[in-house]
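TEACHING EXERCISE
Course module: macromolecular assemblies
Task: Read the component lines below, then compare them to the predicted structure of the full complex.
Student: A.B.
Group: 4
Components provided:
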Amino acid sequence: MASGGGGGDDDVQVKNKQVILKDYVSGFPKESDFYINTNGTTKLKVPEGIIGVVVKNLYLSCDPYMRNRMKKAVAGSYIDSFKPGSPISGYGVAKVLDSRHPDFKKGDLVWGRTGWEEYSLLTNLVTLNKVLHTDVPPTYYMGILGMPGLTAYAGFYELCSPMKGEYVFISAASGAVGQLVGQFAKLLGCYVVGSAGSKEKVDLLKNKFRFNEAFNYKEEPDLDAALKRYFPEGIDIYFDNVGGKMLDAVLLNMRVHGRIAVCGMISQYNLHNPEGVHNLMHLISKRIHMEGFLVFDYYHLYPKFVEQVLSYIAEGKIVYVEDIAEGLENCPAALIGLFTGRNVGKQIVLVARE
Amino acid sequence: MASGGGGGDDDVQVKNKQVILKDYVSGFPKESDFYINTNGTTKLKVPEGIIGVVVKNLYLSCDPYMRNRMKKAVAGSYIDSFKPGSPISGYGVAKVLDSRHPDFKKGDLVWGRTGWEEYSLLTNLVTLNKVLHTDVPPTYYMGILGMPGLTAYAGFYELCSPMKGEYVFISAASGAVGQLVGQFAKLLGCYVVGSAGSKEKVDLLKNKFRFNEAFNYKEEPDLDAALKRYFPEGIDIYFDNVGGKMLDAVLLNMRVHGRIAVCGMISQYNLHNPEGVHNLMHLISKRIHMEGFLVFDYYHLYPKFVEQVLSYIAEGKIVYVEDIAEGLENCPAALIGLFTGRNVGKQIVLVARE
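Instructor-supplied answer key:
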């Protein structure tokens, strides 16, 4: 049963600013790879015969995986490319303006995949969910309660088989995923060290997220030496968000039966030729379990995850830091900033207040 | 209770040729890194007060892991280095000449760790076992029924979670371990392709071990293209014995939820700077489980393994190819030949017939 929707005298045309990808990107993405289309218009009603919703986008989420969608998809890619000339898409929080879908009604606050534009007509609603918990900021549904949160949860608990007292290292540790992995590990009684790319982030890791130690990798000419300083006994668990040189240095410092969860390799996404990793022989001598993963395989854990994280939030055991830019026109800069580490915490763009 | 041993009139001194490591080796090992000491002597009795056995070495085993023992051990290494100036050691089959240990008596045929010399006084008997099954060649205890066999068994069944119909690729596939992994996979109903370094070995893989396909990697300028030819649908399981460029090409061809058991990286053992592996990002998009292992962690499976393999042998379901050199003085050449692929099948040296 469609609730509301269709026809009526508010079937008006409104302006609809959009963030458009000009063409497939190779190398480091630039702001000029996008443009803001200010000439678009849209209707705020779901057209008759279509099952879907029209939403007003309130917040949009910037996530590293989106880099992959900026290039032409290769056969067997796990995700579609953005379409040059069209608005890009990603996770967001939005308000339903009109619905021809039984699960949603006008006024609902929802989260899931939406377009990078002011208003979106959404017809593939598989990823769309109502915002159920209004005692937390709605932006949490793009971070701690959304895809990055479940990524941290699944990657840490399912892949790393963590145990109390183990030595845990996290790269890009103040990011949307890393900050949660570190806090999960601390709550379990692990010794936790994170790396990040600025003094501000290192302070955040130590003071806000209560990591045992943290360091600025940009100030460490010898990553192996840095890791040996913080892990004289070696590393049991490495939660890898960066790949490349850091992964190579970590391999030298893993303990026997260590585990490496490969969540991301952000240091490599923009390189034409990914760096070589030279120390894989340590996988054998240390009997290391290294596993890549995608959050898409773990959505069955979502209810359990949300329950646990909400109770951690309620008990004040976990905090979450967001970096909120303002205005749709600032979306490209915010997205690109992920790859230079400009964001401090989970990057979000506020598009509209209500 | 010591059985036999001690004193008596056959307490004579005999000549004892030995294979001595001159010094730690860097780069490719050469025959000249060893010398044959022809001046040594030994007594054929276990000295009073010592718990051990004196054995006559019949066969010695050449195994790739021994390369690691030729260099100076680094902290945390899983295995001791050979001692320059002393005879090297490894797996072998030997006859007990004298015993002061309750588990062994004169005349027993045994297998386990021994010295590269004609006669050895063995006092650490943890790895020493009696040859129980005399309906198979005793050399099998250094191969199909020994360390390489258990390596193949544990690596394939425990790490790869293989299923009927899956696509399996094995590098160094005609070697001591690879030939068994391929036959295990075939028995399970997998599609099996192996790579090796000569036409003779490729023929062996196809005709003797009944792999579905095999190719000579030395004749493939583009390993990625070769793998795409044999695995148009991609690879579910890669049993890696070589590392380096082949691993890099395999990563491009893995299927979603693929598994890589890292057993060895023989292409890298002799390099001062191991090659870089560039395609690890595929671990994420394909959600690949990659795990290094050492057979030492799986000796609890030995009884089950032997039972299964003996029945496969008895039923003619599995064959094993050995490459047997003759004479202790040919040990260095046989050992070094592993790193240039000179051996065809499991490399063994016959030291004495009885």
